[in-house]
Amino acid sequence: MSRCIFILASGTGSLAEAIISASQKGDLSAQVIAVLTDQPEAGIVSKCATLDIPIISHPMHDDRAEWNEELFQITESLNPTLVVSAGFMRILDANYVTTFKVINSHPSLLPMFPGAHAVRDALISKVTQTGTTIHWVDAGVDTGEIIVAREVPILEDDTEEVLHERIKIVERGLIVATISELLDTLEFSHE
Ligand code: GRF
Known about the structure:
The chain is α/β, with parallel strands linked by helices and 191 residues long. The chain has helices spanning 14-25, 43-51, 64-78, 94-99, 118-125, 160-185, and strands spanning 4-8, 31-37, 55-57, 82-85, 102-106, 129-136, 146-153. The longest helix is centred in the C-terminal third of the chain and has 26 residues, at 160-185.
Protein backbone atom coordinates (compact mmCIF):
# COMPACT_ATOMS: atom_id res chain seq x y z
CA MET A 1 0.00 0.00 0.00
CA SER A 2 1.54 3.30 -0.99
CA ARG A 3 -0.41 5.63 1.31
CA CYS A 4 1.42 6.01 4.58
CA ILE A 5 0.37 7.94 7.65
CA PHE A 6 2.73 9.00 10.42
CA ILE A 7 0.97 9.99 13.65
CA LEU A 8 2.29 12.37 16.31
CA ALA A 9 0.62 12.05 19.73
CA SER A 10 1.28 13.10 23.33
CA GLY A 11 -1.71 11.82 25.30
CA THR A 12 -4.04 8.89 25.77
CA GLY A 13 -4.08 8.36 22.03
CA SER A 14 -7.77 7.79 21.40
CA LEU A 15 -7.60 9.74 18.13
CA ALA A 16 -4.53 7.80 17.04
CA GLU A 17 -6.30 4.57 17.96
CA ALA A 18 -9.32 5.52 15.82
CA ILE A 19 -7.05 6.10 12.82
CA ILE A 20 -5.07 2.89 13.37
CA SER A 21 -8.23 0.79 13.87
CA ALA A 22 -9.82 2.24 10.72
CA SER A 23 -6.67 1.36 8.80
CA GLN A 24 -6.45 -2.15 10.23
CA LYS A 25 -10.13 -2.84 9.51
CA GLY A 26 -9.75 -1.63 5.94
CA ASP A 27 -12.06 1.35 6.49
CA LEU A 28 -9.16 3.66 5.66
CA SER A 29 -7.07 2.76 2.69
CA ALA A 30 -3.75 3.74 4.18
CA GLN A 31 -1.18 2.20 6.47
CA VAL A 32 -0.10 3.79 9.75
CA ILE A 33 3.67 3.36 9.53
CA ALA A 34 4.45 4.51 13.07
CA VAL A 35 3.40 6.76 15.93
CA LEU A 36 5.84 9.19 17.53
CA THR A 37 5.37 10.53 21.03
CA ASP A 38 7.24 13.13 23.08
CA GLN A 39 5.74 11.53 26.25
CA PRO A 40 7.23 8.07 26.85
CA GLU A 41 4.78 7.41 29.71
CA ALA A 42 1.65 8.42 27.78
CA GLY A 43 -1.26 6.06 27.13
CA ILE A 44 -0.52 6.04 23.43
CA VAL A 45 2.58 3.89 24.08
CA SER A 46 0.67 0.89 25.42
CA LYS A 47 -2.07 1.38 22.81
CA CYS A 48 0.53 1.02 20.06
CA ALA A 49 1.86 -2.17 21.64
CA THR A 50 -1.67 -3.61 21.71
CA LEU A 51 -2.37 -2.51 18.14
CA ASP A 52 1.03 -3.76 16.93
CA ILE A 53 2.12 -0.39 15.59
CA PRO A 54 5.73 0.84 15.95
CA ILE A 55 6.05 3.59 18.54
CA ILE A 56 8.93 6.03 18.42
CA SER A 57 9.76 7.78 21.66
CA HIS A 58 11.17 11.26 21.12
CA PRO A 59 11.13 13.12 24.45
CA MET A 60 11.95 16.82 24.49
CA HIS A 61 15.49 17.70 25.58
CA ASP A 62 17.45 20.86 26.34
CA ASP A 63 18.39 21.60 22.75
CA ARG A 64 15.11 22.40 21.01
CA ALA A 65 16.75 22.98 17.62
CA GLU A 66 18.38 19.56 17.80
CA TRP A 67 15.06 17.98 18.83
CA ASN A 68 13.42 19.63 15.80
CA GLU A 69 16.16 18.32 13.52
CA GLU A 70 15.84 14.79 14.92
CA LEU A 71 12.08 14.88 14.39
CA PHE A 72 12.67 16.07 10.83
CA GLN A 73 15.09 13.24 10.12
CA ILE A 74 12.85 10.57 11.61
CA THR A 75 9.95 11.80 9.50
CA GLU A 76 12.04 12.09 6.35
CA SER A 77 13.25 8.51 6.77
CA LEU A 78 9.64 7.28 6.99
CA ASN A 79 8.56 9.30 3.94
CA PRO A 80 4.89 9.57 4.94
CA THR A 81 2.15 10.69 2.58
CA LEU A 82 0.56 12.57 5.46
CA VAL A 83 1.62 13.46 9.00
CA VAL A 84 -1.27 13.59 11.47
CA SER A 85 -0.90 15.51 14.71
CA ALA A 86 -3.46 13.75 16.93
CA GLY A 87 -3.12 15.39 20.31
CA PHE A 88 0.57 16.25 19.84
CA MET A 89 1.30 19.06 22.29
CA ARG A 90 4.38 20.58 20.61
CA ILE A 91 4.69 23.36 18.07
CA LEU A 92 6.28 22.09 14.86
CA ASP A 93 8.90 24.32 13.30
CA ALA A 94 8.53 26.12 9.97
CA ASN A 95 10.91 23.84 8.10
CA TYR A 96 8.92 20.78 9.21
CA VAL A 97 5.50 22.05 8.25
CA THR A 98 6.62 23.36 4.87
CA THR A 99 8.43 20.12 4.00
CA PHE A 100 5.80 17.60 5.12
CA LYS A 101 2.04 17.66 4.72
CA VAL A 102 0.79 17.94 8.29
CA ILE A 103 -2.76 18.16 9.64
CA ASN A 104 -3.92 18.68 13.22
CA SER A 105 -7.17 18.02 15.06
CA HIS A 106 -8.02 20.76 17.54
CA PRO A 107 -10.85 20.72 20.12
CA SER A 108 -12.52 24.05 19.34
CA LEU A 109 -14.04 25.93 16.44
CA LEU A 110 -10.95 27.75 15.22
CA PRO A 111 -10.04 30.57 15.14
CA MET A 112 -11.78 30.62 18.54
CA PHE A 113 -9.79 29.15 21.42
CA PRO A 114 -6.42 28.16 19.93
CA GLY A 115 -3.76 26.70 22.20
CA ALA A 116 -3.47 23.98 24.81
CA HIS A 117 -6.60 24.80 26.87
CA ALA A 118 -9.22 25.12 24.17
CA VAL A 119 -11.96 23.22 26.01
CA ARG A 120 -11.42 25.10 29.28
CA ASP A 121 -11.30 28.43 27.45
CA ALA A 122 -14.60 27.72 25.69
CA LEU A 123 -16.28 26.86 29.02
CA ILE A 124 -14.91 29.98 30.72
CA SER A 125 -16.06 32.22 27.89
CA LYS A 126 -19.70 31.04 28.30
CA VAL A 127 -20.26 30.34 24.60
CA THR A 128 -23.09 27.89 24.00
CA GLN A 129 -21.27 25.82 21.47
CA THR A 130 -17.76 24.81 20.65
CA GLY A 131 -16.53 21.98 18.46
CA THR A 132 -13.56 20.60 16.63
CA THR A 133 -11.49 21.77 13.69
CA ILE A 134 -9.09 19.92 11.45
CA HIS A 135 -6.55 22.22 9.83
CA TRP A 136 -3.29 22.22 7.94
CA VAL A 137 -0.44 22.94 10.31
CA ASP A 138 1.69 26.02 9.83
CA ALA A 139 4.35 27.41 12.17
CA GLY A 140 1.80 29.22 14.34
CA VAL A 141 -0.38 27.95 17.18
CA ASP A 142 -3.48 26.47 15.51
CA THR A 143 -3.39 29.11 12.77
CA GLY A 144 -3.14 26.96 9.64
CA GLU A 145 -5.76 26.77 6.90
CA ILE A 146 -8.99 25.16 8.08
CA ILE A 147 -10.03 21.96 6.31
CA VAL A 148 -13.23 21.10 8.16
CA ALA A 149 -15.00 21.86 11.45
CA ARG A 150 -17.93 20.37 13.40
CA GLU A 151 -19.96 21.99 16.15
CA VAL A 152 -20.52 20.45 19.57
CA PRO A 153 -23.06 22.06 21.92
CA ILE A 154 -21.99 23.02 25.43
CA LEU A 155 -24.46 21.66 28.01
CA GLU A 156 -25.33 23.34 31.28
CA ASP A 157 -23.56 20.89 33.59
CA ASP A 158 -20.51 20.34 31.42
CA THR A 159 -17.15 20.04 33.11
CA GLU A 160 -13.98 20.37 31.06
CA GLU A 161 -13.51 16.61 31.13
CA VAL A 162 -17.08 15.74 30.12
CA LEU A 163 -17.16 18.32 27.32
CA HIS A 164 -13.74 17.25 26.03
CA GLU A 165 -14.87 13.61 25.88
CA ARG A 166 -17.94 14.63 23.84
CA ILE A 167 -15.75 16.64 21.48
CA LYS A 168 -13.34 13.73 21.11
CA ILE A 169 -16.14 11.43 19.99
CA VAL A 170 -16.72 13.83 17.09
CA GLU A 171 -12.97 14.28 16.51
CA ARG A 172 -12.38 10.55 16.07
CA GLY A 173 -14.92 10.19 13.29
CA LEU A 174 -13.95 13.43 11.62
CA ILE A 175 -10.20 12.77 11.56
CA VAL A 176 -10.66 9.36 9.93
CA ALA A 177 -13.09 10.73 7.31
CA THR A 178 -10.86 13.73 6.60
CA ILE A 179 -7.69 11.66 6.20
CA SER A 180 -9.54 9.42 3.78
CA GLU A 181 -10.66 12.39 1.66
CA LEU A 182 -7.26 14.08 1.76
CA LEU A 183 -5.39 10.96 0.72
CA ASP A 184 -7.49 10.83 -2.44
CA THR A 185 -6.28 14.29 -3.40
CA LEU A 186 -2.65 14.23 -2.26
CA GLU A 187 0.17 13.36 -4.57
CA PHE A 188 1.73 10.17 -3.21
CA SER A 189 5.42 10.39 -2.50
CA HIS A 190 5.83 7.11 -0.62
CA GLU A 191 7.01 4.11 -2.64
C1 GRF B 1 -7.83 15.87 21.29
O1 GRF B 1 -8.94 16.55 21.79
C2 GRF B 1 -6.98 16.77 20.44
O2 GRF B 1 -7.73 17.64 19.66
C3 GRF B 1 -6.23 17.53 21.49
O3 GRF B 1 -5.85 16.53 22.41
C4 GRF B 1 -6.86 15.51 22.40
C5 GRF B 1 -6.16 14.20 22.18
O4 GRF B 1 -6.89 13.15 22.72
N1 GRF B 1 -5.16 18.31 20.97
P1 GRF B 1 -6.34 11.67 22.71
O5 GRF B 1 -4.99 11.67 23.41
O6 GRF B 1 -6.19 11.24 21.28
O7 GRF B 1 -7.36 10.86 23.43
